[in-house]
What we know:
Layout: H1 8-28, E1 52-55, E2 60-62, E3 70-76, H2 83-102, E4 109-115, H3 123-133, E5 138-141, H4 144-154, E6 158-160, E7 171-173, E8 177-179
Parallel strand pairs: 3-4, 4-5
Antiparallel strand pairs: 1-2, 1-5, 3-8, 6-7
Amino acid sequence: MENKKSPIGTIVIFGFFLLVMAAAYILTKPVERPAELQGVLRPDFRQVQAFKLTDHKNTVFDEKRLQGKWSFVFFGYTSCPDVCPTTLHALNSVHGLLLEETGGISKNMQVVFISVDPDRDSIEKLADYTTYFNKEFIGTTADKAEIDKLTKQFAAGYIFEEETAPGVYNVSHTSAIFLI
């Protein structure tokens, strides 16, 4: 007499194994959550005090040009090797998404890049730099005293590092984007 084994036992074991694997996958799969917004909302809203910068078109940029628009303000410098280009690229993406998603809200917003390195960041250099990321971005600068006054208002800081060669240095600066 032949001893035939029934395939039912093998099928049941295999099915049970698949069920355990599927349950393990479902239970250990990470839950996708939206990215948390990182920022600080200041409960003590303050009026921006008077300031006077020069934009990349060589015209006055003062506190009046912040009125009536959402302004993304970022302090940096054109020779920045990492934070500034990355941030301006991200702001360009945000600008594009707002335009696409809201049908034109970007007309009521502006991105203002404030150089903390006026010795190297000429008007022409600011024009090339900011419009490389987006032709609507505004590059601004002023003398050190005016920049210091403005960074103090925003609680933004910057420090010039030691020169590695004549005229070659980095500037450590606040990487925050201020929404006004």
